[in-house]
Amino acid sequence: MQKKITIAxxxxxxxxxxxxxxxxxKKINYIFIDSxxxxxxxxxxxxxxxxIENGTPSTEKIINLLNEINLSFEYNTKTDKADLFLNNENVxxxxxxxxxxxxxxxxxxxxxxxxxxxxxxxxxGVNGGIIMDGRDIGSVVFPAAExxxxxxxxxxxxxxxxxxxxxxxxxxxxxxEVYDNLVQRDELDSNRIESxxxxxxxxxxxxxxxxxxxxxxxxxxxxYQKAID
Length: 229
Ligand code: DC
Description:
The protein is of the alpha/beta class. Helix content is 48%, strand content 19%. It has helices at 17-28, 35-48, 59-65, 98-107, 111-124, 137-141, 155-168, 175-191, 213-228; strands spanning 6-11, 31-34, 52-53, 56-57, 71-76, 81-86, 89-90, 130-134, 147-152, 204-207. The mean pLDDT is 95.
């Protein structure tokens, strides 16, 4: 039996880390968890329950209602990834919408939200054989992960990829709107007090700007093989 390790993938918004994590997980038969979906799920709950007023989260109220938020994942054979369920409702499509993207980084600054989600993420990883992507996976969630990747790409390329994705889904937006949201989120994610996005010293950097998806996967697979040896 081959050893099952833990793989942590961190990086800025829309750098391709989820796509890479998903394809690597499929290749090596690991569970893939997109931790950003969980922050997006909490954000959607807050938006639906008027817990964000004029862009400002009502932190106390959110903390008091955390126990009302039940998040779970269910594998979707069509997309080859797990869909997020919020209180038993499939919200995978809704959490990708620009209004959720516009609010999620603020919700992700709340210490109690992070504590609760990190606890759930750590439980998912107790048996290894997991690839999780996010912002604090190598630094906070799985600091002992055997393989840590830090994925990057230029701002323009990341914004273009995200814009193309949204247009494909029929969402009305502009390149500039997507670009501005991405830069703003990076800023908040990197400078927040609670577990900011950092590149840990043991993480291996993969710059996806000029790599095809296949090249990224080959590189990650090679690093995985080295890690299990
Ligand atoms: O990966 P994503 O763009 O779907 O993440 C959405 C937001 O959630 C992002 O702006 C930062 C936050 N996030 C986080 O703070 N920690 C994580 N582990 C994952 C995401």
